[in-house]
Design a protein that fits this description.
Layout lengths: L1 H6 L1 H28 L4 H4 L13 H10 L17 H28 L6 H21 L7 H7 L4 H23 L9 H16 L2
Length: 207
């Protein structure tokens, strides 16, 4: 991302804040949903707020600036405070990706209505739309600690869900690292999972 600052400062000044806001809204959605479902933990920790500073992780923001891959501050919640722990955990998890998809839909509407009069703004909105689709699809991958790992537990049979959770907690981070780092100088394996879905969705949403 920092290279974009030197090659196209205007694009950087548009995309970098837009990406940070998208990450913050993703985490806010988790916090707000957990709060609505009965767990006060996010509110006590000051996470039920639209202030981006409450949701940005310093290391994740730095990584985003240097590598174009970053993360927000994970929202903590206590499933024992939820009325239906398994189902409600899945609802909390899916709230983040759904927020990014909603952002992409809003950007699509803005572009289709011609509310972006300048070419640079149209290009920036299109890139931000794609970034939000990537955030949504990537987080839906069922690998711990991504949101998808919590969602899939709600749909698996109980015994299989227990075995899956135990395996993911042991090896999930390793699997995730293997997915996001390029192999032998080529593309990262995750691109083959995320890329086709993002291409399909962006083809539907972009003018």
């Amino acid at each position: 991302m920092i290279s974009l600052f030197f090659s196209d400062p205007l694009a950087f000044l548009f995309l970098f804040p837009g990406l940070l806001i998208s990450l913050a809204l993703h985490e806010f959605a988790h916090a707000w949903t957990a709060d609505r479902l009965g767990d006060p933990t996010p509110r006590v920790q000051g996470r039920v707020t639209l202030n981006p500073l409450a949701h940005l992780d310093p290391l994740g923001t730095l990584a985003l600036l240097l590598t174009r891959f970053g993360w927000g501050k994970p929202v903590q919640f206590d499933p024992y405070n939820l009325r239906h722990p398994l189902k409600d955990t899945a609802i909390i998890a899916v709230a983040g990706p759904l927020t990014n998809i909603t952002i992409a839909l809003v950007l699509s509407i803005v572009m289709h209505l011609g509310l972006a009069p300048w070419l640079w703004l149209q290009i920036g909105l299109a890139q931000l739309l794609i970034i939000n689709l990537v955030l949504a699809v990537f987080n839906l991958i069922p690998v711990y600690p991504l949101d998808g790992s919590k969602i899939i537990l709600a749909v698996l049979p109980p015994q299989l869900a227990i075995e899956y959770e135990e395996t993911m907690r042991q090896f999930g981070m390793l699997v995730l690292l293997l997915l996001i780092f390029p192999w032998a100088g080529g593309s990262a394996p995750v691109s083959y999972l995320v890329g086709p879905v993002v291409s399909l969705l962006s083809g539907l949403l972009l003018p």
